[in-house]
Amino acid sequence: MSRIERDLLGKMEIPDDAYYGIHTARAAENFNVTGTRVHPELIRALAVVKQAAADANMTMGLLDRKIGDAIYQAAGEVAEGKFIDQFIVDALQGGAGTSTNMNMNEVVANRAIEILGGRKGDYSLVHPINHVNMGQSTNDVYPTALRIAAIRLLQPLSESCALLQGALQKKEAEFAGVIKVGRTEMQDAVPITLGQEFGAYAEAVSRDRWRLYKVEERLRQVNIGGTAVGTGLNTQRKYIYTIIERLRGLTGLGLARAENMVDVTQNADVFVEVSGLIKAAAVTQVKIASDLRLLSSGPRAGIGEIKLPDLQAGSSMMPGKVNPVMPEMVTQVSYQVMAYDYAVSMAAQAGQLELNAFLPLIAANLLPAIETLSRAMRLFAERCILGITADINKCNELLEKSLSIITVLVPHIGYEKASELAKEALQTNSSIREVVLKKGLFTEKELEQLIKPETAVKAGIIGR
Fold first, then answer.
1. Which of 160, 315, 316, 402 is catalytic?
2. Which of 13, 49, 213, 236 is the residue whose CA sits 20 to 30 A from 151?
3. pLDDT single digits (tens) 353-376
4. 315 catalytic, yes or no?
5. 191 and 337, same structural domain?
6. How many folded domains does the chain comprise?
7. Judgement on whether residues 416 and 278 belong to the same structural domain of the protein
8. What pTM was computed for the model?
9. What is the per-residue pLDDT across 281-302, written as a single tens digit (0 to 9) for each?
10. 265 and 384 fall within a common domain
């Protein structure tokens, strides 16, 4: 069964049970491109905007309360996640998000009609544009909803950062006494503790967490009420303040009216800023994951100073092989986030004059970036970091074999002499301790005091 709906281009058959209408159906045909629909969090946020608009319009006496209450209830149901299957427009669409806005207007209108006892498609009861979209434009509704959706997703990402930071700090304390070879440019450097390495990872994640927490403030400035270009045409000034107040109440977020709504309507640089900080967090993840893969390499022919949790068989051919799958996963997610960031940057700079028509591309990349990285970091903490153990014997063995301790002697014998000793140790496959004692430069007792690894991981000149 179907119903006939009409627009300025003609008429179309719409399934009787569909809550969407002709505008949505046309968009679904026009933009059948990626197979990915609009992000659910953006749908929920957009529905909240519709709730706030209905409430504001009723408060001002612009919208009949019976119609307004039905719209408010319908939009509230969508905001709770209902009817998500009715949002059928592709994530990448022309029109600056108009198709998504119309999809929302039609779903809310038809559900409101149903609430009032009518049949879907009877827009004489509740009209998608005249009633649901009253006092609005896609150009203020869509950016506002995108900001709300981003803030809501940033909060779990911040929590994932906190979880990962905590896991790394736990390992920092656990490995505080594990002394090992420090490496620079993949070569032996000076001694360091495994705890110091994990402490540095934790500090980097802490910075990412703080940056993401602070950038949320930028997203709170919204242009709702600015309508088409930010001037507020076809709305009343009181409406702008009323809808912001209603949005704050519905979302629990500290949203505020942008001082210059023309600016916020035109420019999408805030999303570039947010995306850039998410990318920065992804860069941190790659660094940590790369280090863990190196330090756990082996189990016998690699560095092997740490052991990662065994999560699954690593090969269909090589028995007993276990791979560092969690660091590999978080690395791939992070690379994807970096690619998302590039798309966001390109879309933001492509805006022209009074509007950026490419906000759907920003939404289609920014929201998955936040959500995916949040999940990856949580898994990284829970299924990798917390299960890491140190191979203390391997750390000691490599430290003793390395030349790293020679640096401690530089203040006492000079750089040139220390270089000669290091070269001889390499050529004779001897330890620094053996070469120094052979040369008679120090007694065994003196050398023991100088090259204690536990003092070499602290600030100062040993022996002075």
1. 315
2. 236
3. 999 999 999 999 999 999 999 999
4. yes
5. yes
6. 3
7. no
8. 0.92
9. 999 999 999 999 999 999 989 9
10. yes
